[in-house]
Design a protein that fits this description.
Shape: flat
CATH topology of the largest domain: Tetracycline Repressor, domain 2
Number of strands: 2
CATH superfamily of the largest domain: Tetracycline Repressor, domain 2
Oligomer: single chain
Structural class: mainly alpha
CATH class of the largest domain: Mainly Alpha
Number of domains: 2
Radius of gyration: 22 Å
Strand content: under 5%
Low-confidence stretches: none
CATH architecture of the largest domain: Orthogonal Bundle
Strand order of the largest sheet: 1-2
Distance between the termini: 43 Å
Length: 258
């Protein structure tokens, strides 16, 4: 189930998001609370996030946290913006926009896999924090160098972000499925492949293209799903970049090679 950002009090949320970073120290601070909350979510997901859980991690009561953060809604906004601060400030386009955009997409996929709970936060409403804007600014800096106009750039941003989120989501869900069911991808598939062969002995004849694609699948690796997801990300990203390059060529913009 998606969690929507920006559900807390607008004034209090935005003032907290745009505040000067706190100094930390032995006492509580907004920064200490947000860092602890990120650690809880990285380990247990948003389902395990509560003011009580964060307080326990800090050795404090949940009530002590409310003097710094109004509630869980505002905390989620702060958490999202905090982890987005891990993105590089900019991506040089010296080697061309295509190299830079590929690097941004790879970094973004790694970010989502490091903090899979962020995938549960809907993009329908942005956090509107400084790190969120900085992350978008880095992507826009790459695309601005292509010479594409604003309407096309907006479309490319949406396509790239949704592609990366979707690709990371498949892997995040596969890892979650293995943890929660106690079965690896291999165990799950092998438990069903033999039965499928029995109930559908003519599967290859009925679905020849599916059989062909399965026969041409990736080799050994971490897991069935993750192997396929890595291949899908790499191939899909190149196809997406080809599409951007075609749009740039039509607009008479910059070459993909610096």
């Amino acid at each position: 189930m998606a969690v929507f950002a920006g559900q807390g009090d607008a004034g209090r949320s935005l003032r907290l998001l745009w505040r000067a970073p706190g100094g930390g120290g032995p006492g509580l601070s907004v920064d200490a609370i947000v860092d602890a909350a990120v650690e809880v979510a990285d380990r247990e997901g948003l389902a395990g996030l509560s003011m009580r859980a964060v307080g326990e991690r800090l050795g404090r009561s949940a009530m002590a946290l409310y003097a710094y953060v109004p509630g869980k809604a505002e905390l989620v906004d702060l958490m999202c913006d905090r982890v987005l601060g891990g993105f590089p400030a900019e991506y040089p386009v010296d080697a061309g926009w295509r190299v830079a955009l590929r690097a941004w997409a790879v970094d973004a996929r790694g970010f989502f896999l490091a903090h899979p709970w962020v995938l549960q936060v809907s993009q329908a409403r942005p956090v509107l924090g400084p790190n969120e804007f900085a992350m978008v600014e880095g992507l826009l800096g790459i695309l601005r160098s292509t010479g594409l106009g604003a309407p096309v750039v907006r479309g490319v941003v949406g396509a790239v972000v949704q592609f990366v989120r979707g690709a990371a989501g498949v892997v995040a869900e596969a890892r979650r499925a293995a943890r929660e069911t106690g079965l690896s991808d291999e165990e799950w598939w092998w438990s069903r492949s033999g039965v499928l062969a029995e109930v559908a002995p003519d599967f290859a004849e009925r679905f020849p293209l599916s059989a062909w694609l399965a026969a041409e699948g990736p080799g050994a690796g971490v897991s069935f799903v993750e192997r396929g997801a890595v291949e899908a990300f790499e191939v899909g990203l190149e196809v997406l970049l080809d599409g951007v390059e075609a749009a740039v060529a039509r607009a008479g913009g910059a070459s993909s090679v610096g």
